[in-house]
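WARN retry 2 of 3 for item q-0093 after timeout on previous attempt; input resubmitted unchanged.
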Amino acid sequence: MHQWKDKIRSPFWQKNILLNIVLGILGLSLLLNLVAFSLFADKILREVNKDCDVVETFTRLLFYYFLIDLIARFLFQQIPTLSIQPYLPLPIKKSTLIHYPIIKSVFSFFNLVAILLLLPFFIKIIYPTQSFQFSITWLVTILSLIAGNNFLNFSLKKYFSNHALISLLFIAFAGLLLYLDIAKIILISEYFSLTIYYFSKVSFLIFIPILFAALCYYLAYTILYNNAYIEDSQKVTNKKKNGFSFLTNYGEIGQLIRIELKMILRNKRPRSLLYISGLFMLYGFIFYKQENLDNYIILSLSGLLLPAMFSLNYGQYLFSWESSFFDSYLVNRISRFNYIKSKHLFLSISSIIGFLIFLPYALISYKIAFINAAFLLYNIGI
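OK item q-0093 returned
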């Protein structure tokens, strides 16, 4: 009840009722599309491959879904930890308060998407065509993996979200697994499907996925229990305040770029853009294949978008995110020319760094280096 009142009394909710209605309609449309996809998944899979085993192929594709779902949860799903802080001084058991946000996360949008993607296919295809024991065990196994993904997100958020390098390595590792399977170097999805099938046929092994979900829940509970204190909201960290101090040597423009970098690392939305851009760096393995090296349309689109992914995305939101601080810049007598120039230099440097990171792809073909260099100059100009 308190959470519901907090939502409807929020100024954001009251000022953006129309926006919330539009987002609700779009969300409902997305959910209906997922249901339709699940109902017609058998026909879609047979269109791609007439001789495929629909249940086995669908199970194999769930490997991609779970991996992408875990990355999406890590980047976008919010953990409702702060919601329990006002209740910590009250005579309520701490364990009860800790269980609440974890159980509440079960009703998240990500879990709803997973269920709507799974249940129609199960009801239409698996239950009528498979044995009762196989069907129930398969369903419980998949639901346990969904729950495990949900609870595992708590642990990943706690250990990785404040460490940009580790977060990028985690996303890169997940992208590497996808690449290895798509390139058929290691058929991870087939092993995943075989494991699910084995669990479904040997019913007593059903305790393994359930134990996995329970272990993820216990890990999330332990982490939240050990870190939920009243002092957390008032904790003062003794971090160094001289980050990127070398930029102060470049005058007002350098100082503005320094502030930009610090704000990116401190705020969730631009930091998420940074993580996603790191994930897109792996897309070169998908586009720069031997059959595409003479296709200049693909090479040009890759050279335009991939190295400058962060600067293109961040540049779209740059001024809208900082519009509420324009008065502060005016009061501090910051040159408007230097302000705009600092943004241009920051985005240009970001594009150059992206170009350098992508430069090793030139080992595949020299064309990649020249095309990426041409579009680097284009992106800097735009």
